[in-house]
């Protein structure tokens, strides 16, 4: 993966970094350089960058970034993505909107001809959970509140919110933020974020 990093990055870049197992491996291949500044999407990536002695800058202090590296849960032939399994989808979408170049690292088993039948995470504030579930039931789509495997209780996002996994429906996802309490969804469209896919 180091060759992918070197392909896109110069010493002066402000670099956004996503989260997840692929990104953990990616960070471990990067050589330390004191001129580079990294803005991570999650605490997990923040601690890993610090452990590897990289300079970091918190997201709330970052106006723009030059390039963003992340992985995806799924991607299609048009470079659309489903993301958010790690619970950092709001930060990831924010960083991608701030970046001049979004590089997504994926292997072939993440490719889907269609997202039909898959589930997409939506992030909701805690106090809205019952309200959002009621609204979802009226849309007649399948959904479930995401829980930690082997633990009691829901997954908590980087912002202290909850995740509901909803059946893929482009029309619903386009309008879901109209439901009070829905913060963001995990469908990332190439037409909005101009994704570059790098297969690993």
UniProtKB/TrEMBL annotation:
Pathway: Carbohydrate degradation; pentose phosphate pathway; D-ribose 5-phosphate from D-ribulose 5-phosphate (non-oxidative stage): step 1/1. It is an enzyme of class 5 (isomerase). InterPro entries: NagB/RpiA_transferase-like, Ribose5P_isomerase_type_A. It comes from the Eukaryota. GO terms for biological process: D-ribose metabolic process; pentose-phosphate shunt, non-oxidative branch. GO terms for cellular component: cytosol. Pfam families: Rib_5-P_isom_A. Keywords: Isomerase. One of its GO terms (molecular function) is ribose-5-phosphate isomerase activity. Its EC number is 5.3.1.6. It catalyses: aldehydo-D-ribose 5-phosphate = D-ribulose 5-phosphate. Belongs to the ribose 5-phosphate isomerase family. This is Ribose-5-phosphate isomerase. It comes from Vavraia culicis (isolate floridensis).
């Amino acid at each position: 993966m180091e060759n992918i990093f070197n392909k896109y990055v110069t010493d002066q870049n402000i670099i956004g970094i996503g989260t997840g197992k692929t990104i953990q491996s990616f960070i471990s291949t990067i050589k330390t350089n004191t001129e580079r500044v990294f803005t991570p999407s999650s605490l997990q990536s923040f601690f890993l960058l610090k452990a590897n002695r990289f300079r970091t800058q918190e997201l709330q202090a970052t106006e723009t970034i030059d390039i963003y590296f992340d992985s995806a849960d799924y991607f299609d032939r048009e470079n659309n993505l489903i993301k958010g399994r790690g619970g950092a989808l709001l930060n990831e979408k924010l960083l991608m909107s701030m970046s001049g170049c979004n590089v997504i690292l994926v292997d072939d088993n993440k490719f889907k001809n269609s997202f039909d039948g898959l589930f997409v995470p939506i992030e909701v504030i805690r106090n809205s959970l019952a309200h959002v579930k009621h609204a979802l039931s009226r849309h007649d789509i399948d959904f479930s509140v995401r829980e930690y495997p082997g633990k009691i209780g829901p997954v908590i996002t980087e912002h202290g919110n909850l995740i509901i996994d909803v059946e893929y429906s482009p029309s619903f996802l386009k309008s879901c933020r109209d439901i009070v309490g829905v913060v963001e969804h995990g469908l990332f469209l190439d037409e909005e974020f101009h994704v570059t896919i790098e297969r690993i």
